[in-house]
Sequence to fold (372 residues):
Amino acid sequence: MHPTGKTPNEESPLNGNKALSLDEVKTELHKRHHPSLTSLDIEAHAKTVHRIRTLKEKHDVVMLGHNYMEPLVFGLSTKEEQGDSLGLSMYAANTEASYLIFNGVPFMAETAKILSPDKTVLVADKTAGCSLADNFGAEDVKKLKDLYPGAPVMIYVNSYADAKAESDICCTSANAAHIAKTMPGDTIIFVPDIFFAQNLEEELKGEKNVVYPGKDNTARGAVCEVHERFTLSDLVAIRESFEIPKGHERRKLYAHWECRPDVLKESDFYGSTSQIMKDIAARVENDQLERAFVASECELTSNLSQEFPQVQFWTACSVRCSHMAKVRLDKIANILEAIDSGDDLTEYEVTLDADVIDKARLPIERMLEASV
Ligand code: 13P
Ligand code: SF4
Fold:
């Protein structure tokens, strides 16, 4: 039980695999403390949530849910099936289920496919992109390798399999600094995220030389179109208007690694989406958090508000990842209906050439080995 006496999300049967009737689904949705989940929304969506849960259980489907999923979609995954890119990759590597629905963007589902090539990996919308993965490819890795011969290439997981296949090791926002330190030599090439690279460069000052696209070269890199929207002046204004002064014991400003370097420096804590969630959980546990702002995708804050009703969260609703937003309840229901009726799954299935899988598996497996 939370200190407020409210029941936290994690105790809800909705987050488990137990069969529930439509009325029970509605009751559980009503118990959620989500400000934008009104009775109207519940009435509109409960039937779809119920149908998805029923078919998920019937076909023994694993449904991975990234932390950026809107609350109703996020809640379709069990606690174990929810997470950041690293946690979900680890889960995908170890699951026995033959169907894996990945509620996230396709590059994430590709990682699952590479780690579990015999499984059927499905996504709600194959057209969902990512400004990092979409603007960087294998040719860009090759160009950097030519420019810095001998330096190992560490590729951020937000990239497609063909670019990973040209790289030495993969990383996520949960382990980048740690992985970089395990690499041989004093220089690493980090791709494709330019802000992330600059943040890593600062973090590893004196330990590793980080080279990246655009740093004394003309190689192509990319930034996250969502996190680049936060500027230092936004954060200063947020601190002022929401009364979150620097150094306050119980009020905190969080940022994701993909933010601009000056934004990261201004924050009180930075990390991956799950690391941010864990820091909030630990502070709540010790009654050390009353107010927070998270400079990241806004549905992360929606999920946090639901899970930690005792914390006052402010959010920038317009900072939504349009790619993640393509993953909707109705589309997920369509995948499950297709599985149920034995229909063709081509529209949803993530496929990769066997040789790309073989080449891209190595950097991902190296990352997983170095993460434990
Ligand atoms: P995490 O790995 O921290 O969940 O981040 C993924 C992502 O796409 C951030 O924008
Ligand atoms: Fe890509 Fe940014 Fe969306 Fe994450 S939030 S999926 S990095 S565009």
